[in-house]
Design a protein that fits this description.
By secondary structure, the chain is mostly helical. It has one domain. It is built from eight helices and three strands. It has a three-stranded mixed sheet with strand order 1-2-3. A hairpin with a 2-residue loop joins strand 2 and strand 3. The protein is globular and about 70 Å long. The N and C termini lie far apart (58 Å).
Length: 290
């Protein structure tokens, strides 16, 4: 019995794919997905002892991502993509990645370049502000700007909210094997109703910590990026499902390709700046300084 079977009451739509598309779907399943899952595991191992908080956030982003993709693979292998429970776990893993990855890069940018959160030094944004709130009584202009920017981003998170719930159960054949593409009502309510509301809630709550000290600023960052994670994943799924309505194979194609680009891009970034980030290359015997 399939737990939380999402296609239980949905009429099946039979879709015939040409041989080229069938080979593309197969290539995604047996080459692309295993490639970025293995690469993400290698990056997790590489970052396991990383000392900086920003790199630890990147590591946990990859852990959430890999966990979500494992549930996605299990859903395909065990239930032919028909389990809402496994797909919900996949979605939560992607939300965690969408929260922690941009937060980690912001901390890295702040620690290395901007120094906004460093209470002992002026941040680079002083070139615009002329005075720093950490050393004078002047109000921080970027905090003031956040009182508009955060509600504006929270409003964008609500974009999927009024859209109709378009559930579907598409069945096709891929190289002689039956494949299912399911958009269940439960999943769409979660991704296009609950996630946008959670995103808006966490972002707006973060505003209450902007007027405090550095501790309050860190809490505001955490709450904002928690909402950002829900928003980013919800908007991506909304864009793919709306743009490829009736063509779930193309929605799946672009989801897999963007995930591959994300992992490969992160690997390239860490490889290029490994010395500056105090990361030893796995094949290097010594970590030579620049």
């Amino acid at each position: 019995m399939i737990p939380f079977k999402g296609c239980l009451d949905l009429p099946m739509i039979h879709l015939k794919l040409n041989p080229g598309m069938q080979w593309v779907i197969t290539f995604l399943a047996v080459v692309i997905k295993p490639t970025y899952m293995i690469l993400s595991l290698l990056l997790i191992i590489w970052l396991w002892r990383a000392p900086e908080p920003s790199l630890r956030l990147l590591r946990w982003a990859l852990i959430f991502f890999l966990s979500g993709e494992m549930f996605c693979a299990l859903n395909y292998l065990l239930t032919n993509s028909q389990s809402d429970l496994l797909e919900i776990l996949h979605s939560l893993g992607m939300v965690g990645m969408s929260m922690l990855l941009p937060w980690g890069f912001l901390l890295l940018l702040d620690d290395r370049i901007i120094h906004f959160s460093n209470k002992n030094s002026k941040c680079e944004l002083i070139k615009l502000c002329d005075s720093c709130w950490k050393f004078t009584d002047a109000a921080c202009k970027f905090k003031q700007l956040s009182w508009f920017a955060i509600p504006a981003v929270a409003a964008v998170a609500l974009l999927p909210l009024p859209a109709p719930i378009n559930s579907s159960h598409v069945v096709t054949w891929v190289l002689g094997n039956e494949s299912h593409f399911v958009l269940s009502p439960l999943l769409q309510w979660l991704e296009f109703r609950i996630f946008p509301l959670l995103a808006c809630f966490f972002m707006l709550v973060s505003l209450f910590f902007l007027t405090g000290n550095m501790t309050g600023l860190k809490k505001a960052q955490g709450l904002f990026f928690m909402g950002f994670g829900f928003m980013l994943y919800s908007l991506l799924k909304f864009l793919l499902n709306s743009g490829f309505a009736g063509l779930p194979q193309w929605a799946n194609f672009w989801e897999e390709i963007t995930e591959l680009m994300m992992v490969v891009g992160l690997a390239i970034f860490l490889g290029l700046f490994h010395r500056q980030l105090h990361l030893t290359l796995p094949w290097s015997k010594t970590d030579q300084e620049m």
